[in-house]
Design brief:
639 residues, alpha/beta, seven-stranded mixed sheet, six-stranded mixed sheet, 25 helices, disordered C terminus
Amino acid sequence: MPLLTRISGPRDLDRLAPEQLTELAGEIRSFLIDAVARTGGHLGPNLGVVELTIALHRVFDSPADSILWDTGHQSYVHKLITGRKDFSALRAKDGLSGYPSRAESEHDVIENSHASTVLGWADGLAKANQLRGRDQHVVAVTGDGALTGGMAWEALNNIAAAKDRPLVIVVNDNERSYSPTIGGLASHLATLRTTDGYERFLARGKQMLNRTPVVGRPLYGTLHGAKKGLKDVIAPQGMFEDLGLKYVGPIDGHDIQALESALQRAKRFGGPVIVHCLTEKGRGYRPAREDEADQFHSVGVIHPDTGLPVSASGADWTSVFGEEILKLGHEREDIVAITAAMLRPVGLHGFAEAFPDRVYDVGIAEQHGAVSAAGLATGGLHPVFAVYATFLNRAFDQLLMDVALHRCGVTFVLDRAGVTGPDGASHHGMWDMSILQCVPGLRLAAPRDADQLRAQLREAVEVEDAPTVVRYSRGKVGAPVPAVGTVGGMDVLRRADADRPDVLLVSIGALAPVCLEAAELLGRQGITTTVVDPRWVKPVDPELPGLAIRHRVVVTVEDNSRAGGVGSAIAQALRDAEVDIPLRDFGIPPRFLGHGSRDQVLAEVGLTAPDIARQVTGLVSRLDGRYDEAAAPSRLSTD
């Protein structure tokens, strides 16, 4: 019987002999390769933490002891050990989340997927345990690039202030986040990785001096008192010790016995301890280890034997951006690029190959990236900061007070904006068009197709006296959506055949095909509709109120939160222009959305053509005084 079938909870690990633990680790890797190949997901990081996760659950008693994961994408092994073995719908609707999930298990303390936060969580939990008199341990697993974030060091500064507060920090040091980790801290950890002989050196010295008559023991005592200085020469873990943190390591992160020994020592210490573990991302899977780009950090559906994609993917939004920024790089020497540890995922790898001196990877440090961009702009360059929309939230203050206040020409390119799908609540990019509305001078573009992305990116980098933002969706980019005319700076996508049409439908970004389909369905109900794409959604086009007054109803559709979004901004613009007509805004309700495919999540919140058409039909019918709610169809056919 496979050992994995005998594991339904962490305490089942206690009954296994050391050689069985090694066998179990192999079974877990085989399971992950097979399961994630079928669904896609974060494969490489989880292959690297198999032994570490086993050791953690043998030494600590979850959930009484809190094991916190940063980042949460390396928690698949943790899910298996805590009894979650159905990976058939991983990251799909009604299936397992790709991150820790409180709804799934009491062993998941935090739903952590924005990196560098776990040490702050651990600090707070350890303080709470101390004040409540609870004899429980807090274990924070960080790494996979998370220590490049400034929040981690802010937390370490506070953690170190309490010498008697138990807290174990496990650094999963795989030299990577998405791609190879860079920066001063990465160099420091690399130095530590080369000094695993330090403890053996000290032990041999002790043995030799203790055998030396008369002066041996006193001399050893003197040298041991100089331990701090010796360590700084041989293994500069003194940086951690200067903070007041006990340091253990480096430890082979694939040696379960060595891991357990180190974790047991840390557990007994009674204060904050760092356990430094060396792991290999993609461990045990040759296609992952041979993938120099990101060692299968995240994969789609692949052949488990070869690691190759099952089906070829078409052009996506990210690749369109990558191609266009490369062209701009050749045309303009002042354009530089910034990434927060995601060079390839945001499409900057081509630019980096062509212009290695004009790309800056700041690590998982979006705040620093934004301020650095302001400095680059002040120095006469035009920075393009490419980042996932959900991660721009972390740099809002810097965008507001450093970039916008100083009128710096910085372009922020937001990948995976709107509903993203399988990564769930923390990764839906549904906040950006709301939080950016209040930034003075900022200009925000929402391209509807690849041609518009290319054009609006070029327009954005021409602005030198204010921040600009270009946001686009995740995944494949659809067919071009041609304009049939213009009004001001807006593209007209559909003209209504009427002197005063019923509906002005304002389509935002990638939802243009949905809006055109909704207009077609409305037409079948005898409701005339004009569809426009504002292209630049902040500021509101000054021609929009004049266009709106020529219609009976205004409808806005956006892949963003309805709270404070584009619909709200357009409503304000209509009020300011004293245009008093009904407005209905369609968008994402102000709640956290789960994981599933993009289409499933859009349907869940009513952002489909039939749902929009049904509600607009009811609105127009009420204006006509002929709406019978009881008789209204629940859904319009798309046939």
